[in-house]
């Protein structure tokens, strides 16, 4: 595989692979680190890839294995998803509707429609990795109130993104 196609494929797959890693790990920084490591491995092995689809499949599989190994090595934080769910997610990942840019655009629009409080919850939870009591303390509310608000916010985002992607496909 030539260098130009390799770089284009790595860039095209970046967001979806990091999203996949974050679903497994919850730790955004570790997901980014693993993506970088796997990308470097791809550069070293570029002659082994037949085409962009081959590289994309290898990238996701290698990233999944590295993420599961990282969880085993750390032992301090459990998987965000059950191993069986990760397997099923991996099997269906290529069939996910919409391109990465479509999903990213839908997410950005839907985040913009949230209340300031809901956006703050999402930011603190997923960008600053706060959860439970620490998240509740950061927003000055009790833990159960924050858990309910976060659950509702996730459901709102899910429904909004789903609706926007359906509109794109019709």
Give a nutshell description of this structure.
By secondary structure, the chain is mainly alpha-helical.
Give structural notes.
This protein is mainly alpha-helical and 170 residues long. It folds into 2 domains: 3-95; 100-169, Arc Repressor Mutant, subunit A (Orthogonal Bundle), CATH 1.10.10. It is 79% helix and 0% strand. The protein is globular.
How many separate domains?
Answer: 2
Residue windows where pLDDT falls under 50 for at least 5 positions:
none
Strands, count: 0
Overall shape: it is globular
Q: Give the helix proportion (percent range).
A: over 70%
Computed Rg: 18 Å
Q: Kindly report how far apart the N and C termini lie.
A: 35 Å
What is the count of DSSP helices, taking H or I runs of 4+ residues? 8
- Output the helix-strand order: HHHHHHHH
Strand content: under 5%
Instruction: Name the structural class.
Output: mainly alpha
Biggest sheet details: none
Overall pLDDT confidence? 83
What's the topology here?
Layout: H1 3-25, H2 28-44, H3 52-74, H4 83-92, H5 100-113, H6 116-127, H7 132-139, H8 143-169
Helix pairs in contact: 1-2, 1-3, 2-3, 5-8, 6-8, 7-8
